[in-house]
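Our preliminary data section would be incomplete without showing what the modeling component actually yields. Below, a chain of 93 amino acids is followed by its predicted structure, encoded as tokens that our downstream tools consume directly.
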Amino acid sequence: MAKQRNRRFHEVATPTPFEEARDELFRQIIQCGVIGADATHQAEWFHDTMAYLSDRYPELAPPQVAELRTLGDRFVQPPKRGEGGESSSATAA
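Predicted structure:
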């Protein structure tokens, strides 16, 4: 006979409106090709997108919308290259 296991049901955490808006912003950045765009086009795109997200998520306070913009700006930046940070620690070991 098979051994019975106690199954615990884990509660699934529902995302907050901020988390949903953040995830949607990141998806839109990837889909719309903002990552390689000119800075003026990025600024225009962000202006329109932040207005859209503010309408779509009225629960967000203005500081949260500003934080989304900051996260989006960071997300579209090219990755920073370490100037020997990893290689110097590898040779020191």
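The helical segments are 17-32, 39-56, 62-76, 85-92. The mean pLDDT is 85. Preliminary results of this kind motivate Aim 1 of the renewal.
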